[in-house]
Amino acid sequence: KIDGKDNYKHYIPEMNEDSHNIYFLEKDMRLALEKEEFYLEYQPKIDVKTKKVIGCEALIRWTHPKRGIVSPAQFIPIAEESDLICDIGNWVIKKVCKQLKKWHLEGINTVPVSINISAQHLLKTSLLDTIFTALKANHVSPSLLELEITETSLIQPNQSVFSTIRSLKKLGVKLSLDDFGVGYSSLTHIRKFPLDTLKIDKSFISKVPTEKDDAVIISSIIEMAHGLGLTILAEGVETEEQLLFLEEKNCDHIQGFLFSKPISNDHFKQALISGELI
Ligand code: C2E
Ligand code: CA
Ligand code: CA
Ligand code: CA
Q1: Which segments of the protein form a coiled coil according to its record (predicted)?
Q2: How far apart are CA 278 and CA 268, in angstroms?
Q3: Which site from 77, 92, 123, 249 is most exposed, i.e. has the minimal number of CB atoms within 10 Å?
Q4: Based on the number of CB atoms within 10 Å of its own CB, is 258 exposed (0-12), middle (13-18) or buried (19 or more)?
């Protein structure tokens, strides 16, 4: 690793603080994968009508040995600059499948878990095999796994993205479109994909019911999604007012701090057993 050290000495003087941070975070993320410094939290998804937990989203967490907790909003974009995001994604897939197996063996009535898949990862032809292998190795039903993808993945899809998505669908894995409303939100390209769920971005939810425009946009998104046979989930629900509004507009599922923050696997297990949050 002498070369690495030389590079480091050579580059440091030209680096500003940001690129310096990026350089170290990337290096540390590779180590973090080896040393198991990453872990997952699970945020419950709630059915608006029954108020029952119907699923959850796995969210990655990192306790850095020196920096302490580093937010995914900080390190995921850096990981997305390289192949590292695929290594992280593969780690998450395996971890979630192992967790689902564990809950099953413990006699827990499990719910589907969603995983965030970055655009670069979806481009990998190996993704399908990784998912298939992880499900099989842990005897997990594909219907217990959901992939959350963003529109970036679908804007200029190549043949392999289409074929990966089709194969995943055939296998029984669920597919949801994350952060809906902030990107292109083009209905035409959405129609080409076998989606199950649209997740309305939290930036819309945070402004209802006060902002009239956002309220109108949300109602039409819900109506449109239902017209297309899609389930609709609102993310970032923090207040009773927002919940009431979404109930009135027939939103199917919600996720947000009003019901629960992302919680540890043990805490989520307790919620599944007792049927109660917090
Ligand atoms: P996202 O996929 O949109 O995830 C939802 C984010 O909103 C999470 O932030 C969650 O903690 C937060 N959130 C949930 N409910 C509320 C609420 O009521 N109010 C507010 N203000 N926020 C809420 P988190 O965990 O910090 O993750 C940030 C982003 O990092 C995620 O956004 C996702 O894009 C990315 N990310 C997280 N975990 C993974 C992962 O395992 N793989 C990949 N590729 N990306 C991930
Ligand atoms: Ca997500
Ligand atoms: Ca989101
Ligand atoms: Ca996001």
Answers
A1: none
A2: 9
A3: 77
A4: middle
